[in-house]
Amino acid sequence: MKTNITKNIWFVAVLFLLGCDKGLDLEPSGEVSETVFWQQERDARLAVNAAYNELDGTQMVIELDGITDIGFRSASNVPTFNDVRLGEIDPSNGTITSQWNRYFRGVRKANDVIVNIDQIEEGDPEVLERLKAEARFLRAYYYTQLTSLWGDVPLILEPLEINDQRPANDKEEIVDFIINELDAIINSNALPTNYTGSDLGRATHGAALTLKARVALRNGRFELVRDAAGAVMDLDLYGLYPHYGELFQYPGQNSQEVIFDRQYTVGGDTYNGFGYSAASIGGNSTVEPTHGLFEKNGYKGPINPNDPFENIDPRWDFTVYYTGQPIVFIIPCPPVIPLTG
Amino acid sequence: MGILGQFLLIGLCLAHETDPLKAKIRQGMVTEAVYKNVFMADEEGGTAAINDRVAIDVSGRVISSSDNQGIPGVNILVKGTTTGTVSDLDGSYSIDFPDEDGVLVFSSIGYATQEVAVNGRTVIDVVMEEDMQGLDEVVVVGYGTQKRANVTGAVTTVSGEALTRRPVTNTATALQGMSPGLTIMNQGGAPGAEDVGVRIRGVGTLNNANPLVLVDGIEQSLNTVEPQNIESISVLKDAASAAIYGSRAANGIILVTTKRGVQSGTNISYNTFIGWQNPSFFPPKADPVTWLRMENEAQVNAGGSPPFSETYIENVAAGTNPLEYPFANWEEGIFNDDAFMQQHSLSISSGGEVGRVFASLIYSDTDGIIQNFNNKQATLRINTDLYASEKLTIKTNLLYRNRNFSRPGHTAQRIVQGLLHINRDVVMRYPDGTYDLVSGYWNPHAMANEGETNNVGDDIVGQAGFDYNITDALSLEGNITLNSESTNESQFLASLAGMRHYITGEPVAVSGWFATNQLNEAQINQRELSQRLYLNYSKASGRHALEGLAGYEEIYNKTKEISSSRQGFFNNELRDINAGSIENQQTGGYNEEWRLRSFFGRLNYTFDDRYSLQGNLRYDGSSRFGDGNRWGLFPSISAGWRMSEEDFMEDVLTNSMISSIRLRGSWGQLGNQNIGLYRYLSTYNLGQSYQFGGTVVPGAAVTDAGNPDITWETSTMSNIGLDMEFLDGRIGLVAEYFWKYTDDILLELPISRTIGVEPPVQNAAAVSNNGYEVSLNYQSAFRSERGFNYSVGINFSDAVNKIEDLKGAGPFFPDNFSIWTEGESMNTLRGLTSPGLYRSQADLDQYPATLHPSVGIGDIIYEDVNGDGEISQSIYPGGDQIIIGNEDPRYEFGVRFQASYRGFDFSMFWQGVIQKMHLLDGAIPEGPAFQNFIHEELARESYHPERNPNGTWPLVTTGNSWNIVKSDFWLEDNKYARLKNFQLGYTIEQDWISSLRVYVSGENMLTITPTDLFDPETPRGRSQFYPQTKTISLGLNVVF
Question: Does the pLDDT of residue B113 top 80, yes or no?
């Protein structure tokens, strides 16, 4: 009897001392924990793909126009870009902070790749190098947007711990960083000049050169602009697409006029241009073009007062809706229109 | 008897008394009680005419079945008289017996009362069985039982008998008002899916605040366990009693013990009731003419023209031509009158030399008060104890439960939403069965009658355990348990596409949920395997008594769900997933598991039955936390002092009504691990896809940060208690005061957005709950079995909730109403403040700032608190919202009255809250402004310059948004007292079976509350809830 008790006590004691954590280290089976990621090429590919989906969407392409002279953002009872037009932005404006948040999500995703990709042992080294360059390109892109809109922003080069706080860096420092990064990508030739099939839309060598030209242009470094833009032209890959209207339809996707863009497809992200259009044709009139858009693009004003849009550049048919435009015949009304540019 | 006795001893966990001193005192007390009984009865002339018979002298000895020792202090009465005596120290007694054919009644607390026919004998020895139901003596505590006298924590017990007094199928409902400090909010809900909130001593966390409910040690829902199977419930309220459950104990513990077989003999009982349910409360609606006139008025006030002509109104009033001049009676279209319910329960309890068994079969069938809602539940339970040897008992518990809940395709919330928000000038249902659909998909009557939802569940709990008596002082107990719940959920939404208009024959526009049929199916399986093993030690020598417990427990839980859905079914009748179209089909699922490993111990020392000291320790390891934070230690200590046992108290006690005084105090720490899984880990979210070249490509990224430092929420709780008895125990008083401080509450503190991920939860907040509880019970002096006996029980409690710390963050706005800010309750409301309505130009001049340019006479005035000339709905000082109150229930009470006289028994039970506020939202304040439900109060009170210049509700204006914002104007007092239950029973005297009782019973039949607008137990929100019910029922209890 006594031995039985002793055995039982020992049983408990042994469990207590030795087996404490066994079985308690359960990991989720439906989510991928950080402990099993970064093992093969596929992981890097997944992480880079995710970094692309913070590229500007509808919000920036159309809404940002609404706060300039070429567009009008309709009034709203929740804070939107309309508050910028009214000169009433405050720090709690969710539309503006969400844009800030979006770019920093992109920075985080890119940093995650850049810091962790070298752990991967299984995979084609060339592909891994390209993926890393794509991530650096995307980070440079997000910083271009951040510094263009906000000026001084914190420069973050690794995934931060949750309680980290970083001060803002000077705009010049950010611009130097972007240009150095793009130079490193360009000089390494890690990005190809073009892709095929289901890689179409990834960052290319030309995209890196073009982004460098854009950030240099926005910051008055004109020599750099000249050289980088010239290098793009020297690639001899890009040119105007002959049919302007098709740029907004399937045939114009990934054509020679497109250097880098956000990609859309049915079943994935789609672009509902009609959602922004006039209420009379099914949109919600969120952002309307103003006369400034016409003036900016060479419209000479109404010559015939009875038909103000007489003889205008036919490309307007694919850019805005104007009075008298024969909508039905020009655009076959799919609910979803792939948009490039 | 020896073997049986041995095991009884084990079964009682050594609760038997061995201390002669204690016995002596009890003897004294009982003697006094008998003296008083006799004295009181004499006054009423109850002892007349007993000296005419032949008297004999009967003597003997009363011994306990458990140890063959004499029982002192047994109350021995001559049946039908007040003549009696009390057994002495070694159980001997003698009595002058007036009638040689009479019957002696032996009774003592803790033992089953026995009646023995004398039949001319002069020596009668009696063996008394310890009464397992006698909860006065033995209290179920964590992993064992304790003598009530030794319990040092705050524990309230409720007997199964008290629960089954109410003909309800839900144990949580039956517990309402039974224990001070236990708040049960019956928030309505469909049968089988009742929304019953359970809180012990307030809300101690910003997260899940549900107490841990253990049925025979296994975590289960209080809503599904059948009241008929319950032997007792212990509510462990303070740290001393709950700390043995460590990381799961912060919200308090409810221990449910199910019935076991009787020691000997066989009892068969059958209990049944049938009942009829109706909504307990729904705001009385305006009559149709007033209704339509209010809608006209709202349009006119908004500058429009009245939508309803006099012809329309006259036709509606006359009820002629309802198809041309319809007025939909949605109430009739969705509610059932007198919804029927029935329950049958058959149980067998049997025991003998080899063991004992309790088996029961329970079936209930409850229709909902909303059409097509129903719940059927069948439960089989078998609890057995097998006496394998003198030292070993094998215990097995088996439960099988089948749940079958059905409702229409749509939820009650959505149907009631339709009732409250859909205009009435439509045809509810045409003679051919078609409907008018508002916006193409709204018609609450159609929603309550189309489609179907079935949730079929199978619950199995199998428990195999043993109880091994190693020595007299040492025993080992353990069990292995499987708890399996599997539920099939199937929701079919019918399509009404293709419907043609009854009058015009034109196709009816159908959209939304009626546009296409859809089937959603889900299968949820939860399996929980657990095992526990613990060693009990109990030894008393002289005036010292020592009890100890050391144990181990491990729980592993795995939950798996798979779901699928399809649309476009061939027709509304083919409801198999295969009959749907594969286009737009969806599948999903998840798998979750957690494990808890624990070691625990308890030490209890009692000296002289005067001083007791207890310590608990639990060491918990949980898979919910990361390495280094997995293990937590939860200690508690407590002490008790029976002051009335002290010599210096002797004079006080003999000269007063006080019979016993005891003081208790405790301190301890409890944890809350109920905080979700894997929150310590950063995980790669696989839903981050992108697209390249027209193809969707998968992507993965960390989108929500994990927090590797995450750890338990910890509650530190102190409690002082006072137990007093008066008039020899006929009046009992228990009073408690507690301080509870919960720290490290998990909260999503905002983080710098430059980090690029959603914030993780962090151990950040602290909340306190301080309060008191009092319960008082009075038992009338015993006046024979068939005399008028009654008892009254009152309990009262209050707790003050306060957010102590948010780490400088906040205020947080968890919903449209609330604000979490330091120094205020968690249920604090924010809103604008209003001095009333604009009634004159002077008011408009005095309060020029308005929420909207259209505001004028008859609208609500809001105060410009920050003085910026504008009314803005953000918190002061940026805006004009301030804290306008809170919705905490304060001063809760329960009052129970029971009485019996001859064959009749009566009981009633009131429950209520003395202070409570509710902020109105939804259709009730909106009314005709959005063509919503119009209730009588709005119709009567809405302001109108000519019609009703003294109205207290604002002017009705279509599309009005400025009168319905959150403000103290809409703060409604909803304190209440509610007759939760009354019951009148009659036990029929007959000779065929042991007992036959019939009763009539009512639930929620009477409510006293200042509000006419909603049921006072309604939760916060837009009143779109399945309403609470009132039930009248007839029942039958039979014991064979």
Answer: no
Q: Is the Cα dihedral B43, B46, B51, B54 positive or negative?
A: negative
- Alpha carbons within 13 angstroms on the beta-carbon side of residue B181 total 32
**Nearest Cα residue to B668 out of B722, B742, B735, B612:** B742
Kindly state the average pLDDT of the residues B809-827.
87
Q: From residue B835, how far is each of B839, B847, B964 by CA, in Å?
A: 11, 10, 15
Calculate the alpha carbon distances from B39 to B27, B46, B55, B821 in Å.
18, 10, 21, 62
Of A273, A284, A204, the C-alpha closest to A238 is: A204
CA dihedral B192, B195, B200, B202 (to 10 degrees): 180
Q: Are B907 and B897 spatial neighbours (Cβ–Cβ below 8 Å)?
A: yes
In whole angstroms, what is the distance from residue A89 CA to residue A83 CA?
5
Separation of CA B330 from chain center = 31
CB of A76 within 8 Å of a chain B CB? The answer is: no
Q: Which residue of B has its CA nearest to A90?
A: B878
**Looking at the complex, does the CB of residue A329 fall below 8 Å from at least one CB of chain B?**
no
Mean pLDDT of B387-406: 95
State yes or no: pLDDT of B44 exceeds 60: no
CB-based burial label for B57 (10 Å; 0-12, 13-18, 19+)? exposed
pLDDT at B377 over 90: yes
Mutation for testing the B interface, residue in A16, A49, A112, A114 having most B CBs under 10 Å: A49
- Tokens standing for residue B612: 């007791």
DSSP 8-state symbol, A62: I
Based on C-alpha coordinates, what's the Rg of chain B?
A: 33
SS (H, E, C) B511-547: CHHHCCCEEEEEEEEEEEEEEEEEEEEEEEECCEEEE
Could you tell me if B332 and B354 are in contact, meaning their C-beta atoms sit under 8 angstroms apart?
A: no
- Residue A332 pLDDT > 90: no
Tokens in use for B66? 């458990």
- Reduce the DSSP state of residue B301 to 3 states and report it: helix
**What is d(CA B331, CA B336) in angstroms, rounded to the nearest whole number?**
9
Highest mean pLDDT among B40-54, B220-234, B308-322: B308-322
How far is Cα B328 from Cα B312, in angstroms, rounded to an integer? Answer: 13
Structure-token pair, residue A242: 């002959």
Query: How far, in Å, CA of B763 to CA of B2, rounded?
Result: 57
Q: Which residues pair with B257 in a beta bridge?
A: B232
Q: What is the pLDDT at residue B668? A: 95
Would the pLDDT of B46 be above 50?
no
Residues 6+ apart with CB under 8 A from B858: B301, B837, B838, B839, B943, B944, B945, B951, B954, B955
How long, in residues, is chain A? 341
At B399, the amino acid letter reads L
pLDDT for B331 beyond 70: yes
**Residues 6 or more apart whose Cβ sits within 8 Å of residue B585:** B564, B565, B566, B567
What pTM, to 2 d.p., does this model score?
A: 0.79
- Whose CA is closest to B427, among B438, B411, B414, B418? B438
Q: How many angstroms separate the CA of residue B425 from the nearest CA in chain A?
A: 29
Closest C-alpha to B865, from B847, B853, B881: B881
Q: Which of B591, B699, B754 sits opposite A46 (nearest CB)?
A: B699
Per the document, the length of chain B is 1040
Q: Quick one: pLDDT at residue B259? A: 93
Q: Confidence class of residue B816 from pLDDT cuts 50, 70 and 90?
A: confident
**CA–CA separation, B716 and B669 (whole Å):** 4
Residue A269 near chain B (CB below 8 Å): yes
Residue A96: partners with Cβ closer than 8 Å, 6 or more residues away: A79, A81, A84, A89
